[in-house]
Specification:
Helix content is 58%, strand content 2%. The chain is an all-alpha fold and 195 residues long.
Length: 195
């Protein structure tokens, strides 16, 4: 590289650095704007999403979470429960409990969902989470299980454990972890789960 190209490159780099520098006041203003935006997003998240879903989605009769709602967010008649949505709602309740620890209701919502996963969605005979159960928790269809669905069960159980330190959450998550008798790959080899 010639000296003139090196000098031009150095000059342009230096110029860009000078242009991109901000005064302390400018940095403070940008930080204030970002904090205000973060507060707005948190408020909208809480009031327009979290507080609408919880406790509305809690199935107080059969356990787990309701997921079928009409346009006015009233529970619909068909409340089949998929492992994907049950795992996601468990994860959401657990994360909400960690984010807003003063609101103890989220811990209860997470425990409620975890108990349904553990007691109704887990196949006690062969292992793995059922893909779909009825509202009560009886397996539907051909009892098929998928790696995709089971990953959400694992995701929910692990996050529940992170939030609660309930050893049952860790035990359920470990059932799908490498080295267990019910790892996803083991269940696939046995023909119990589809990948």
């Amino acid at each position: 590289m010639s000296k003139s190209i090196q000098s031009a490159f150095f000059f342009l780099t230096l110029l860009l650095m000078v242009i991109s520098c901000k005064t302390k006041e400018q940095r403070t203003e940008v930080m204030s704007e970002r904090l205000a935006l973060a507060d707005t997003i948190e408020h909208l998240l809480r009031t327009n999403l979290v507080d609408i879903w919880y406790p509305t989605c809690i199935d107080t009769v059969y356990g787990g979470y309701l997921t079928s709602f009409d346009k006015d967010f009233r529970p619909g008649p068909n409340q089949q429960k998929m492992i994907v949505s049950q795992g996601r709602l468990l994860w959401n309740a657990s994360k909400a409990a960690m984010h807003w620890p003063a609101d103890k209701q989220f811990m209860a919502y997470a425990k409620h969902g975890f108990e349904f996963l553990r007691d109704k969605m887990w196949d006690k005979q062969y292992g793995g989470f059922y893909q779909l159960v009825d509202q009560v928790g009886n397996p539907l269809g051909d009892n098929a299980k998928t790696a995709y669905g089971n990953s959400f069960g694992l995701y929910g159980a692990a996050t529940y454990y992170m939030m609660s330190k309930d050893p049952e959450g860790l035990d359920l998550a470990k059932k799908l972890s490498p080295g267990s008798k019910t790892t996803v790959m083991t269940l696939f080899i046995k023909g119990i789960i589809n990948i």
